[in-house]
Amino acid sequence: MLKPRTYGLLLLLGWLLAGCSAGSQSEETLTRAASLVAEAPDSALYLLRSLQGAPFRSRAQHARYALLYAEAAERAEVAENNDSLLRIAWEYYREHPNEIRAICKTRYYQGRSRLRQGDKPGALRMFLKVEEQLRTIDEPYYLGLLYLRIGGVYRTELNFVTAYRYYRDARDLFMRSESPRQTTEALLGMSVSALRMHDLGRARRDCAMALDLADDLADDTLVRRSLGLFATLYTLSENERIPNDLLLRVERSIRGDTSAAGRCTLAQTQLFRNRPDSARHYLRLAEMAQPDNDVWPMIEYTAYRVEARAGNYREAARKIDGFIRLNDSLTRTALQTSASMVEKEYFRERAAFADYRMQSRRVGERVVAGTVLLLLGIAGFLVRQRMRLHRERDERHLLLIREAEAEYRNLARNLAQRDLAEARLKGIIASRFDIVDRLGKTLYERENTATGQAAMTREVKRLIDGFAENGEMLQELEQIVDMAHDEVMQKLRRNFPRMKEADVRLLCYIFGGFSPQVISLFMEESVANVYARKSRLKSRIKASDAPDRELFLSLLGPVSEGC
């Protein structure tokens, strides 16, 4: 019978085997989807949807799945919000700068997502960042695809000159990568941009090349778009008639097309057939189909041609006025001040600065390599370095000796100052003993007599008056207090420069340890008044922000009320 521990090990082993099997199956599905995404995006999307909710064995596998799903949905033209998947891919690939292609793809599809949400400036910034990174690798197809999208952004902003340049660069890149379908897309973009710039000759030439390529590909969608552009070109050209075989192709290609552009093209074919009533009917249907900004001006111009052909000149004037209002590209371009061009120049300057930094780093690396070789070639220099180190060590020892001498001189100076302070203190003590000596002699000479008591009283009174009025005795007292309490009187005068001299003297007596009764004799005030002044000064010091406030408060002590 198996033990519980053995059961646990078996379960763990089974779980690991299942995880490995699931991880390898997911990797196989991702590889199959990657091989199908370009030619059969619908099949790739079906395979990727089968992995929804499946565990991934690493962040790299999850990021690969997210990017493949976004790419397959984009190629299959499935309207899904893949921002969360693109964030997963970006959070991984941003930490792996060597994955340039994956980074560029992620940013590209982020820009496409913003473009679908109507954030054209944000999409353009993403596309320009991708362009900056794609320049580091040779990827003509992806760079052409990027230029195709940038040209579309500029075209929607009615900046047709810049849009034409990007479409032309995209065409050249697609021709390098041998991508005929995308080359046709770029040629059609060039044709539309040239048409909106009223350069009909260039538009006709580009449209003819696009139609030839679309015929070679046997792509009905591209053929229909090319023929529709030809109908628009001949509608704008009043001096040339559309060839009959081309007109027949246009009519066959748009049969059953219910879009606004298709109905506008149908109206143009009826105009070529000189059927204004039928043309008006299709134009009304085109207006009901909610045309976009590219189709509206052409509907107005076709309506003008129809009304002019029918002889309804008042209505024709109204339609041409609407066309001019919608299609005045010069006014619109002047009002727009291409902010996107400014952004592009900024990114180009930043890329140039990055190239400059890279070049400077390479120069620095060469300098470092040359320095290393130079150091290896002069090994004898180490001997001189060792000698110099010995010399510096000796100099350092001499410096330490000089510093010790300076410390010794400072110590001697401090001792001399201390001796001076002791001498001053002895002098003060001697003077105080002189006072005691005088009092003792007076007591001895007139002991127990009325005159002796009176003499003692006069002597004490004279000493008290000396402390109260004599400046020298007060100075000696301040010196004694400073020596006893860390120069408290000097700090008091620094902290409270505006304090009255009487208050300073009172605090000197208090710091000196005299009782309130003796202080009242010194200052010729009542004891209660001394207590009151002491309390007031203590409150003032406590409320202040003086640096030595705690020292003052500790010497003041508690204020007693019972005297």
TrEMBL record:
This is Tetratricopeptide repeat protein. Residues 1-26 form the signal peptide. It comes from the Bacteria. InterPro entries: TPR-like_helical_dom_sf. The chain crosses the membrane at residues 367-383. It comes from Candidatus Alistipes intestinigallinarum. Keywords: Membrane, Signal, Transmembrane, Transmembrane helix.
